């Protein structure tokens, strides 16, 4: 290796370049990089927060669907029970009406027999 004045001039120029870069340019780059890093961190935090909100909304919607299904099932059961009650009431009423008609018919028949016996 041949060391001469050119090597020292290049070494001096490179050293000056490094010094100027480190002294004047690097702080600007560093602040830009820090700002960008902070911006990325905020974006990641916002994404994480949005993900949590989405999960909460999904959980809430699942709970609402479950509640709606439960309420619908309850209403269906109540409607079935009420329908059964209506049928029973109709049967009871029909039976009572049948008994009244039968009693009235028996009374009419009895009166007819009495009239026939008189004749």
What would you note in describing this structure?
There is one protein chain. The protein is mainly α. It has one helix at residues 5-118.
- Termini distance? 160 Å
Biggest sheet: strands, sense, closure? none
The secondary-structure element order is H
Q: How many helices in DSSP terms? A: 1
State the secondary-structure class: mainly alpha
Beta-strand segment tally: 0
The helix content is over 70%
Content of β-strand: under 5%
Q: What does the radius of gyration come to?
A: 50 Å
Net shape: rod-shaped
Low confidence ranges: none
The overall pLDDT, averaged over residues, is 92
Can you give keywords for this protein?
single chain; 119 residues; mainly alpha; 96% helix; 0% strand
Brief sketch in words of this structure:
The chain contains one helix and no strands. The protein is mostly helical.
